[in-house]
Amino acid sequence: MRTMPFTSIDDVKAKLAAADYLASDAVATTVFLASELGKPLLVEGPAGVGKTELSRAVADACGADLVRLQCYEGVDEARALYEWNHAKQLLRITAGREETWDEARSDIFSEEFLLPRPLLTAIRNDGPTVLLIDETDKADVEIEGLLLEVLGEFQVTIPELGTIKAEHRPFVVLTSNATRELSEALRRRCLFLHIDFPDPELEQQIIRLKVPELDSTLGDSLIRVINALRAMPLRKAPSVSESIDWARTLVALGADILDDDVVRESLGVILKHQDDLDKATERLNLDEVLGAL
Amino acid sequence: MTETPVAQDLAGRLVEFVGALRSKGIPAGTSETVDAAAVIDVLGMSDRSLLREGLASALVRRGGQRDVFDMTFDLYFPAGVGASQAAREMDEDFDIDDLRDLLAMALAENDLRTLEQVAEIAVDLLGRVGENGPTGGWSAYQTLERLRPQTLLVQAIGQRGMGGGSGPGQGLGQGGDFTERLERDEVRQNIDRFRAMVASEARRRTAELRGRDVVTRHAVRVGSDRIDFLSANRQQLEELGRTVRPLARKLATRLAARRRKAHRGRIDIRRTLRRSMGTGGVPMHPVVAKPHPARPELVLLCDVSGSVSGFSQFTMHLVQAMSGQFSKIRVFAFINAMAEVTDMVKEDSDDLAARIGREARITKWHTSSDYGEAFADFHAEHMTAIGPRTAVLILGDARNNNQDPNLEALHEISQRARRTFWLNPEHSMRWGLGDSIAPTYADIVEMHEVCNVDQLTKFVTRLLPV
Question: pTM for the full model?
Answer without folding.
Answer: 0.70
